Amino acid sequence: MLSEWFLAPAGCSEKASAVPMAGQDPTLSTSHPFYDVARHSILQLAGDDCFGRRVVTFSCCRMPPSHELNHQRLLEYLKYTLDQYVENDYTIVYFHYGLNSRNKPSLSWLQSAYKEFDRKYKKNLKALYVVHPTKFIRVLWNIFRPLISHKFGKKVTYVNCLSELGEHLKWDQLLIPPEVLRYDEKLQSRHQGRPPPAAKTPPPRPPLPTQQFGVSLQYLKDKNHGELIPPVLRSTATYLREKGLHTEGLFRRSASVSTVREIQRLYDQGKPVNFDDYGDVHVPAVILKTFLRELPQPLLTFEAYEQILGITGPRAPPEPAQEGPGAVAGVESSLRVSHCRQILRGLPEHNYAVLSYLMGFLHAVSRESIFNKMNSSNLACVFGLNLIWPSQGVSSLSALVPLNLFTELLIEYYEKVFGAQEAPGAAGAGEQGGPVARGRAADRHAAGLATSIPPPSPPTAARRHR
Fold first, then answer.
1. Where is the stretch described as Disordered (predicted)?
2. For the whole model, what pTM was predicted?
3. What is the DSSP string of 13-78?
4. Which fold, 297-466?
5. What does the mean pLDDT of the chain come to?
């Protein structure tokens, strides 16, 4: 799959691509198993595309000279990274600019890469965007086309300029190297004979009274008569609870972008939505993820981001030693659950109520993992970056582990994290119980969680399939 990408120089000077990338990911630890490769930021996570699929970018201009990079390690790192996404639909953006004779892998490496990237990696790759392709790479693609399946060939899209890429992906989430930006500007100037005019941004429009997407939780509460749980979240979760819990791969699949936009428009106009009309249980699943992703501020808030990144560190105080099998794992889980509860204490009570409702639903999904194959770990991989992201830019690949771990803990240990019996000062404390206690009370009262979230089940099927 990757061999076609490296076969042609991109028409840039060797000097430009020989300089290592500036601004290494500050969250990248030297203990990362592929630190020697990851430190170059050749491969990065770049949010989601218009279909809600995770986007991974590959930047040739960040590849150092061949003598400074072990290409076999690069291949292993590619597989290591994609292994986190191949179970879900995903998209790759390949920035071809910057590849030249000094950093281009050998032909034997290309052959090895082509053999190792088998159907496992190709199946759920839904789109491959080749940005700034050269004439030579187009010729090579035509030569290799007979050797590549027609189905895979339809996934490849050539993108001649970055403005075209914006039609398929969320422009503000893309981590585009400065070298690529400058090269694109040069191409645009060459084609137009003058610098491109600055784009005029239309004045922002006030949201509709019935708006559901892209507005704050407070706005939704005010426009829905004080209801804490947003209508989109309640309707999608209710429908999926009734008709989707046994659907294999729930939340992993994408849906038609035209269908998603049509449903968004109906919701924003205050019109009823009947998911039965669409005949696809994955449609409400995508709508739910889209709603979370388009909140102006993540459900877990910007303030909690740095705290969550520390979930894998030894921040909680040590507990007394335990005996017996699984004792160490038990202590570690207990400490992390306590850490989760401490972080959630800082959430606004409205955010806490919505989070509790959502996690209760996802916990119910994980309990049916024997049918839907979506245990708490799989769900965390899907929802982690839909619940929290940094205030500037997007989450890096190295941030995925703590973000997903935190989400997995919320789902797996839902009763312990959100259980009212553990709330600080919950018993008779009233408003003195802090935002957590007040959030739970408001959640149960306004969202009806006492009836909408089923009681916990014993750790049978869902946890055996982890």
1. 188-208, 425-466
2. 0.61
3. -HHHHHSPPSS--TT--TTSTTHHHHTT--EEEEEEBTTS-EEEEEEGGGPPPGGGS-HHHHHHHH
4. Phosphatidylinositol 3-kinase; Chain A (1.10.555)
5. 76
